[in-house]
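REQUEST
  id: r-88c1
  op: predict_structure
  target: Nuclear transport factor 2 family protein
  payload:
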Amino acid sequence: MSIEDRLNIQELNFKYALYVDTFEPDNWAQIFAPDAVLDESAFFADALFAGRDAIRSYGAKIKENVHHIIHLITNHIISDLTATSGRGTAFALVETMRKTGERLRFYVRYDDEYVKIGDSWLIAKRKLDKSLPPEKVTSAT
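RESPONSE
  id: r-88c1
  status: 200
  body:
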């Protein structure tokens, strides 16, 4: 498909990171298709979310429990791109500081399915896997 399609799909990753990192669950949910699936079960129990409302609620829960979060997303490859669908893989380094003070680092692989609805590319399915085990971060003293 067009370069514009590819850029719009790549921008989904940037918006995903921006909206979760700035605690904007409503905007975060809007980059997903209405019936999208977000699967973080490789990291947390009960972390399979189906539909925008469930994804929005999960974003609100992140906002309640996390003080700081940052996603550094890279190596995004788009494949099987048609006029209305595609697949992608990307990797991320994610650091969080929970409101309890606990700091965690995650090494994430995203396996995505994209769908074009009207003029907008959206995430239809995002499955997260561990590319390395998560780790607790301690401060140097």
